[in-house]
Amino acid sequence: MILVPLSFLVSLYLTVFLVRLLLRGRDTFAANGLFLLLIAVYIVQTVLVGLRWGYGIVTILPLLSTLASLVPPLSYLAFRDLAREQRGLSARDWPHLLPTAALMLMTLVWRNLVDLLIITEFLAYGLALLWLARLGPDGLVAARLDGTLRSYRSLQLTGLALVSSALTDIAISLDMLWSGGQYSALVVSASTTAILLLLGIAAVAVGSEEGEGDAPDDGHDDPAGLDTGREEGRSPERIQGSERPSTATAASPEDRQVAADLDRLMSERRLYADTGLNLARIARRLSLPARSVSQAVNRVHGISVSHYVNNHRIADACRLLSETDLPVTRIVFDAGFMTKSNFNREFRRVTGMNPSDWRRQKTAA
Does the N terminus or the C terminus of the chain have fewer Cβ atoms within 10 A? Predict the structure, then answer.
């Protein structure tokens, strides 16, 4: 019977998702090239893990270690890209190649230090990602607002997975020291496959969210193709079941002014209907730093920017559901959502029911 390592199945799973993302066109690669590259690295890595621990091929160990050293910096750079208004790599990012260069040198000279280098690298970058996550979902200023929470959870998952990988390597080293590596092969194969699967899921989740409909920002307030004269959607505060604190927390006059300007931008220009909207775009329209906008929304409304914008979207969706006969699939995009799954999730969060049930209830009333 032919042995098929579990890692091969993980590789196949990730390959299917990578192909699906690539089939969306060049815009997907331009917007999420680092995440697509990460998924490709995970695919090759899981295949190598299967060859090493499933079939005992040891000649691939140098390549396995080299690819492993690329995972932490690529993960960090990909998520850091979502946390900056100006996306993309620059010449100043070259120090992130140093761990891989050092590993290649150690492979030739100080091979005993390779494991220590990889453990240190995974731990350092994992902690760096968790530190990046301290800002919350609003810290991902370049992430699409209807999928920010999913991207943020992927950021947390990636940071925890890298730290877990480092701790697992430490456990393997202790096993080698105390029991001569009696359980090391099983632990390495299982843990590496599981961690690569988690990292792959995180990268796929972000790539799926950010690779759809990320239209270029033309610098105008009105999203392309929108009629600013259309009837305003109801205020999010008036939707039954929506969650909004009744009092603001430590809001300064400047915060209130920013929030008022943003409210006008949303109601008069229907900025929320831009499916590719993110915090960076909102900040550019207000000519303010992204951090100032997020702080104003947090302090005045007591919610994140993504929830604030999605509340406006759901308010408009409720208006369309009650006043028109448009199908839900059309309302998803008219309200500013890119995927029906995100729309349904946010609609249930705000109203407590799915769109079809909400429409039937309103029609009966």
Answer: N
Which amino acid is it at 204? V
Instruction: Please answer whether residues 166 and 119 qualify as being in contact, where contact means their C-beta atoms are separated by less than 8 angstroms.
Output: yes
| Displacement of CA 273 from its chain's centroid (Å) | 21
- Helix or strand (DSSP H, E) at 115: helix 114-132
Structure tokens at 348: 């249930």
**Could you identify the residue written with the tokens 């299967």?**
50
Per-residue pLDDT tens for 48-91?
988 887 788 889 988 999 999 999 999 999 999 999 887 788 88
From CA 227, how far away is CA 186, in angstroms rounded?
A: 61
User: How far apart are the C-alpha atoms of 211 and 203, rounded to whole Å?
Assistant: 11
Sorted by sequence, the CB contacts under 8 Å of residue 353 that are 6+ apart come out as 241, 347, 361
Contact 287, 219 (CB under 8 A): no
The pTM assigned to this predicted structure is: 0.79
Beta-carbon contacts of 313 under 8 Å, excluding residues fewer than 6 positions away, are 146, 272, 273, 335, 336, 337, 346
The band of 339, judged by pLDDT with boundaries at 50, 70 and 90, is: confident
